[in-house]
Design a protein that fits this description.
It comes from Spiribacter aquaticus. InterPro entries: LeuE-type. Pfam families: LysE. This protein has helices at residues 3-18, 22-34, 36-67, 69-91, 114-126, 129-139, 149-177, 179-185, 187-210. Helix 1 packs parallel to helix 7 (149-177) and helix 3 (36-67) packs antiparallel against helix 7. The protein has one domain (3-210). The longest helix has 32 residues, at 36-67. With 211 residues, it is mostly helical. The protein is globular and about 55 Å long.
């Protein structure tokens, strides 16, 4: 994988992690109600769950390429179409409304030990099938014939580190910086920027495959 391709992958992973969603809400909740340590554990375990999906997806695509390059081209085009749809939807994102300035959601769990926080983060990631679909579409744009273990490890490792690192930053700085409120106020622009990057990647990849 070239440096420019990896930077594109990194940018999409970062923008995807920045987008507010249920995973962010979980990290906020565990940080506020169980403490910074629990928030950090939640962040790391969620990143590991994301890494499981990322690794499985990269390995599967590599196996497809090794035996069916035509099928890989079809998957790549289908993935580009899905990313194009995701990007267009994100660029049409509306204003978040009254929730923009809201504080963290009320707790619905009692403060617990680190094991409970780890379970929460891992379960949130593993029970979200959208993560698997997203990585299938995304990685199909980067896994190429001849991709070996280093490339696969780089793909999965980038997704894991970005996800865990971002939520760890949220957990570490939440109480002092009000990072969650900042994200909610800028949710529309984050989604639109993410959408623009996804649309560009989808169109450029489709042009390469069809060209």
């Amino acid at each position: 994988m070239t440096v420019s391709a990896w930077l594109s992958l990194l940018a999409i992973c970062v923008l995807g992690a920045l987008s507010p969603g249920p995973s962010l809400a979980l990290v906020i909740r565990n940080t506020v109600n169980r403490g910074r340590g629990a928030g950090l554990i939640t962040a790391v375990s969620h990143g590991l769950g994301v890494g499981v999906y990322a690794l499985a997806t990269a390995l599967g695509l590599a196996a497809v390429i090794a035996t069916h390059e035509t099928l890989h081209s079809a998957i790549t085009l289908a993935g580009a179409g899905y990313l194009l749809w995701l990007g267009a939807s994100a660029m049409r994102a509306g204003h978040p409304g009254a929730e923009a300035g809201a504080g963290p959601a009320p707790a619905d769990v009692m403060p617990g030990r680190g094991a409970a926080a780890a379970r929460d983060g891992l379960t949130m990631a593993l029970l979200n099938p959208k993560i698997a679909v997203f990585f299938l579409a995304l990685f199909s744009q980067f896994v190429t014939p001849g991709a070996g273990a280093p490339t696969i490890a780089l793909l999965a490792g980038t997704a894991t580190v970005v996800d865990a690192g971002w939520y760890a930053l949220v957990a570490a700085g939440l109480s002092a910086s009000g990072g969650a409120a900042w994200l909610r106020r800028r949710q529309v622009w984050i989604e639109r920027l993410t959408g623009a990057v996804l649309v560009f990647l989808a169109l450029s990849t489709a042009a390469t495959v069809l060209g």
